[in-house]
Amino acid sequence: MDKNYKDMEREIHEEYKRKLTELKKVKAEKAAVGQVFTKGILPLYVFYILTLGPANGNDIANQISDHTDGHWTPSTGGIYPLLKKMEKQGYAIGVISEEGRLQKIYTLTEEGFAEYERKKDLLFDKIHDAIQVFRSVSKKIYGFDDGFPLSRQDNKNSDNADKQI
Hints:
By secondary structure, this protein is mainly alpha-helical. It is 73% helix and 7% strand. The longest helix is centred in the first third of the chain and has 51 residues.
């Protein structure tokens, strides 16, 4: 009986280790997906918004939301540290606005414009590759030849059209 108990204990421990490994893998994959935005696209987009003119963190978040039709509204908690880092690196200058409520307005420096061009060039292939991956996945999993439908409703309409043919 004691041996049986030890075997059960060992099996439970092995199952625990397997599940823990799976959870760690899922967590790492989620972090990697998030890093594509926070470490790659968000800094690039913050630079882009500042090429359009001076802005504060809230303005940047709102402009990104507008440019992506509300599909992505980054947190100002992710934007402000980027702006501070850009300021520290000499890519942006932050000035406290004396009009209206107190806020820090950021403007790109010449070095900031050059860094934007460098980042834009550096990330081009990575963004292109990511788009190709999404196209391949959508084609294989969902059967879409030309990318992903704009909404689930468009997908349902497409399914209904196929059934009518």
